[in-house]
Amino acid sequence: MKKAALIVDHPSRDLDYIVDIATNLNNLKIKTFIVPSNLRHRELLLLSPDYVLYPNHRDYFAEEVNILKKSRILVGVLETEQCVHEDFFQDYQLTKDKEKRKDIEDFFVWGEYFSNTSIKRNWYNENQIKIIGSPKHDRYLKKIKKKDKDFDILVATSFPNSSPIFGEKVNTNSYRYLGMKDEHIKTFIELHKENRQNTISFINKYLSGKKYKVLLRVHPYEKKDMYINEIKGENIEIDDSDETIFHSLNKSKILLHYNSSSCVDAQVAKIPSINMSWMRTMKVFHESTEIMKEISYQPQSEIDSIELIDEILENKISMKTENDNNAIEKFIYKLDGNSSARCAEIIRQTVHTKKVKKEIFKNQTIFLTNFSIKGFFVSLFLKYKWMKTKKYFNRKDINNSLDKIGTSLETINPKINGISLSSVEII
């Protein structure tokens, strides 16, 4: 029986749609494991899958993907960031080694726009690119929307560099690892801090204590202390962002964001979005992308934003672009809730048509060292650290996700050679 391993980076963003893909793979008779990104090195070695699905193909994943390729294990990438500026994606969210890009069998994209961009810029070739829509949004499209909204406005922050939850040193090092120069990192952080403060000032001046009911959702990678301490007004509620953003959107009438991919979530949920486009931007880092321009209102001042909010709440205007518009299909192929099924079917085709014989990480010391006694204790330490973060999830979380879609499938934590894993198998 063929085996697939699906890597989860951040559960509040990724777990539900990974569970959906896993469910579809299970129905296609492929044994499927959900693997924590933090513990993937040792656990992929022990699971020995035929196929591994990664959340991106950045430089820090490229070397291990190459090792998998050499070990005859097939690799797909379901890129989570398809709403950023193209130059930023090319410079910082894609492996710079063009040869290593050939290691990918399947590069899953939302729609024709990102597919054409990938081919035009020589990121991946036509055989690698698979247009499936966005699995992340499948549940949004199938879930019954709440008609009575608790909040007029959802403000979604997107300034993780302003107060990173893992600390500025860790955050800075991660950008260095992506190849960003220190002066650019400094400017990027300063921009986030500036616009975080702009957002706080806007809320206090125009939203706090007024007629609006406001929900503030702090970015999952951003500390919320600053907002709690500085935002005033009993009409402002702060969300801890433990749930997916759809949970917050379902309670709100309007999304207010700053060049954030959350506008795509709002679009799918049929909630009008307003970009805080009056705030300062940097070329590449924070320009509004083509899809953002298409679906979000782009006011030029704070007053313009308030006027838009009032017009939407008074039903004078609604969505900037409706979901049945052909322009949307260019960016997200088929908003039908079946993207996860299409992804699973392509994985099935790949593992059954690519006749390769696995060489179980033979002579690959980067993995084999994790199998040593020392590596075992290192793994325990990493698991302890992982459990202290927002990236932690367990079987209970996966079972809860399965319950939401009414499936009767069960889960187990597999044991390999008597070693219990944190990965979860769908059975």
How would you describe this protein?
By secondary structure, the protein is of the alpha/beta class. The chain folds into two domains: 3-134 and 335-426, Rossmann fold; 140-331, Rossmann fold (3-Layer(aba) Sandwich), CATH 3.40.50. The protein has 18 helices and 16 strands. It has helices at residues 11-27, 40-47, 59-70, 86-92, 112-120, 138-142, 168-177, 182-207, 225-230, 245-249, 262-268, 290-295, 302-313, 326-331, 339-353, 365-368, 373-387, 395-404; strands at residues 3-8, 31-36, 51-54, 74-78, 106-109, 129-131, 151-156, 214-217, 236-239, 252-257, 273-275, 296-297, 411-412, 415-416, 419-420, 424-426. Strands 6-5-4-3-1-2-16-13 form an eight-stranded mixed sheet, with helices on both faces. Strand 14 and strand 15 (419-420) form a beta hairpin. It is globular. The two termini are 13 Å apart.
How many domains comprise the coordinates?
A: 2
CATH hierarchy class name of the largest domain: Alpha Beta
Distance between the termini: 13 Å
Percent of residues in beta strands: 5-15%
- Range of helix content: 40-55%
For the biggest β-sheet, the strand order reads 6-5-4-3-1-2-16-13
Quick synopsis:
This protein is 42% helix and 15% strand.
Please describe the topology of this protein.
Blueprint: E1 3-8, H1 11-27, E2 31-36, H2 40-47, E3 51-54, H3 59-70, E4 74-78, H4 86-92, E5 106-109, H5 112-120, E6 129-131, H6 138-142, E7 151-156, H7 168-177, H8 182-207, E8 214-217, H9 225-230, E9 236-239, H10 245-249, E10 252-257, H11 262-268, E11 273-275, H12 290-295, E12 296-297, H13 302-313, H14 326-331, H15 339-353, H16 365-368, H17 373-387, H18 395-404, E13 411-412, E14 415-416, E15 419-420, E16 424-426
Parallel strand pairs: 1-2, 1-3, 3-4, 4-5, 5-6, 7-8, 7-10, 8-9, 10-11, 11-12
Antiparallel strand pairs: 2-16, 13-16, 14-15
Helix pairs in contact: 1-15
